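Cross-check.
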Amino acid sequence: MIRKALAIIFMGLFLFTTTTSAKPSEENNYSEALLTSLNPAIQNALTGYYGKPILYTEPKILMIERLHKGRLSFNVTVQVKTFAGINNSQYGKETMTIIVTHDSQFVQKFHHEDQK
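Predicted model, tokenized:
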């Protein structure tokens, strides 16, 4: 009887934790949507730096700053880790500041840091 009760409690806890952790937060959705929309600018900056298309992982938004009060123009600082194909050899950590306006995106600053 006690085993049955414990089994039900553990099963309930397991189901509760898997269903609650499976729902992404609204903030995470905004962040991922912004990173998705910035992908062309990120890819162009990486291609410009490495001279060829390059893969990246772990994109993060480090900072968002409004440039002009009342206008839709922002500095968005993004960081990614670059790597080479199947063997996943790491190139480095790239930090870039992208100016985003209502009709354009371009990389203002780009900084490469070797992966150690």
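The beta strands are 55-66, 74-84, 89-100, 105-114. The chain is about 40% helix and 40% strand. Passed to J.P. for a second look.
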